[in-house]
Amino acid sequence: MANNYQMMTVRVTAIEQATPQIKRFTLAARDGGLLPAFTGGSHVIVQMQDGDKRYSNAYSLMSSPRQLGHYQIGVRREEQSKGGSAFMHDKVQVGDELTISTPNNLFGLADAPAKQVLIAGGIGITPFMSQMVELAENGADYELHYSFRSPEHGAFATELAAGPHGACTQFYINSDNRPLDVDALVDRLPRDAHVYVCGPRPLIDAVIAACRSKGLSDAQIHWEQFAAAPQSGDGFTVVLAKSGREIAVDEGESILKAIEKEGSVPVECLCREGVCGTCETKILEGEAEHRDQYLSDGERAAQKTMMICVSRARGARLVLDL
Ligand code: FES
Q: Could you read off the pLDDT of 144-182 as tens digits, one per residue?
């Protein structure tokens, strides 16, 4: 896959507190012109400079792909924030400028006439808001299932219920004893349905498992989650082939962090979440345990490259083309 991000400056024109933990940011071009076109499910990477600290996070575009006078993103303040979501919540004000990437889509809609079923948990609602514009426009047979823990945490639920997608949206509110029953939902779907899920990892895993047990192929199951993969797993050794240096990657540490700590080789990285592809590195020996969302299944199986910001070694040693 080619990495085709370009960076641009946008101005924050509105900030809205959508729930106690989620803010919606509206971003416009600095010159007031149109922003680059995108398709439903696309994301941008926001780069933030906080003193000498720099953060990069990927956020789905939730605004309409047909209205390019602005983009909108929803940002949840993460308890375990690397710093980026806290910066967005605490420091970014209307009128500030932000550096963002051009949009890229790793969660696009399938080009299939079948039923399209969108399943969102919490902040996972955002990519579906832009996707549903395209689904409605194309006259698609689609439905949205949106689960959240209590009414005050249902970001954008009121506008969804009142808007053009309200008739095909079902809400599931845990505190009201109306939880989402993933197995029952998937069980009633036609066998050719395409299922999309975005939200917390347990929801994604439950939907994937239910779809597979119903016999849906992996090509019919689409998921996205922006969060750095936890760096669990045993430590291992990385050899940087160009310099011959050997670097120990500890448990709980990413290859990228270990290389940065050692300091001898500069590595390009934009998102640090396995999303953007800028840290893609050739594997010369050994195998990766892939944890990114960038490579295709075929590319992962080929074991030719890996994303060193999130993926780890499958084994005790990896030799990389660095
Ligand atoms: S820095 Fe974006 S995929 Fe690694």
A: 999 999 999 999 999 999 999 999 999 999 998 989 999
DSSP 67-92: -TT-EEEEEE--TT--SHHHHHHHT-
Q: Among the atoms of ligand 1, which is closest to the Cα of residue 292? A: 3
The string of pLDDT tens digits covering residues 211-266 is 999 999 999 999 988 876 667 788 999 999 998 999 999 998 999 999 988 888 88
**Residue 193 — φ and ψ, nearest 5°?**
-65, 150
Ligand 1 pocket residue status of 278, Cβ below 6 Å? yes
Q: How far is the CA of 210 from the centre of ligand 1 (A)?
A: 30
DSSP 52: T
State the closest ligand 1 atom to the C-alpha of 308, by its place in the atom list counted from 1: 4
Q: If you classify domain 7-101 with CATH, what class do you get? A: mainly beta
CATH numeric code, 236-320: 3.10.20.30
Question: Is 269's C-beta closer than 6 angstroms to any atom of ligand 1?
Answer: yes
Cα gap 255→313, rounded to integer Å: 9
Residue 125, C-beta contacts closer than 8 angstroms, at least 6 positions apart = 62, 74, 146, 155, 156, 160, 198
The DSSP H or E segment spanning 58 is strand 53-60
CATH classification code of 116-224: 3.40.50.80
Find out whether the beta carbon of 229 lies less than 6 Å from any atom of ligand 1.
no
Q: Ligand 1 mean position to 301 CA, how many Å?
A: 19
